[in-house]
């Protein structure tokens, strides 16, 4: 049952000229349950209705037709407040959660529609850093959320596997590299070679010319250049896959930048034919002065293509391949201009689907004042971060629960969960100053707290002998769930569906993570106030049904944002 919609339908006839949608949009959930379960702020209608807010509220109250769903209504300070019948509310919500199980909260909004999500997209031979972690975690959560809302998500890893840096890397490897060392140390060694190239090139500019020449060879399909490039890609992917396996992330496509090598010429021709390309000192660009943006550079003086060229080509390829409803790009906010520029290029080419392209920026991560720069190699290694989180979880388990089975597995699920959740606990656009203490803090509003609450619910159900997903829901006496703590939980359970939908519309997974903390907190209040495994069988059954509903909803929510939900911690 959608209560906002239902209430809007009840009120629509009484508010002349106000549409159902407007009413539904205005209805709020009062933060304080003493103000009711639902509330219409009438001051937002007083201009249109030319009436004082309190008068509108009073009128709604006077005309209200009593029914089973509502206990009472009230008009207070310009608000029309509705108090639901608590037993019916509890019964309805619990029945729905238990009936839908792992589908509870899901919808069919996007049936038959594709959403392409470009996320993670690290660069070959460069460290997978915390910015890529953010993109991976946010992108994956959005992927799951869209799927849960009925869309078909297509996850694309637009690997940075092409560009002049490969010329530099080849030169550096040939001059200073050793095969065995690269094999043993992987990206770290490649990165060192790359940094060394830049250090040396400061005094020996001819190195830059050599690098350019090697990149041209690579572009022309020279066997040696291509063999080295493939090897760099392979070594890097092996490491990225270690991260992805730990994080539980998969992609539907790994078409990286190089995938578009043979597809750009046609796009450049099209740009030319549409008179969008302008020559400027030997380079080709699309002028965007009219839109207050610097030009989008498409071909360099030396004939090389650019990040822009590849993104324009990739978008057209994706539209043709997936006929997407929306294509989203999850990167740090520093790339906003880049996306605005090439989205405009697509629009100027006459593609009306340009408006289906959306950049989903997130805030930068800084490390206590230091700048995260790949060139200097001054980065937080994600591998190290995850390893530390797992190790710390392992220590806590060893201390608190030394006899636990599958310690390693649980440590991995909780440690990795802590890192993912930490990343998703603020609005994505907020800049983050990375702190080890915070990332490894498991107290308070964290992933481990939510996971622990889930495990606590599992433990109660285990002790009660409740097996599988469904206790007998139908038989519960919901009158036994009308106390404040139980109602607090019911209210949170009810909100899940709406929160997930909001998270989708705003492309903001933190709405789900914050919701999970609220649900966990309300459950823990209930758990402390209301003993569950009591002798009174009716009370026990009702409370167990609520616990089961919480377990299901926490698990669904955790899964959406990419966390596992171990049953024992
Ligand atoms: N490889 C880029 C980086 O590491 C991100 C690519 C994002 N996707 C895209 N289609 N531009 O910053």
Which key phrases capture this entry?
alpha/beta, 21 helices, single chain, Gyrase A, domain 2, 569 residues, binds arginine, three-stranded antiparallel beta sheet
Structural account:
The protein has 21 helices and twelve strands. The strands form four sheets. A four-stranded parallel β-sheet has the order 5-4-9-10, sandwiched between helices. α6 links the parallel β4 and β5. The structure holds arginine. Arginine (ARG) binds next to β9.
Draw up the topology in text:
Elements: H1 3-12, H2 20-26, E1 38-41, H3 46-49, H4 53-63, E2 70-76, E3 79-84, H5 86-100, E4 114-118, H6 130-148, E5 152-156, H7 165-176, H8 179-185, H9 187-201, H10 206-219, H11 223-247, H12 264-273, E6 277-280, E7 283-286, E8 296-299, H13 307-322, E9 326-332, H14 336-348, E10 357-362, E11 365-367, H15 382-400, H16 407-423, E12 432-434, H17 436-439, H18 447-463, H19 484-505, H20 510-529, H21 537-560
Parallel strand pairs: 4-5, 4-9, 9-10, 11-12
Antiparallel strand pairs: 1-3, 2-3, 6-7, 7-8
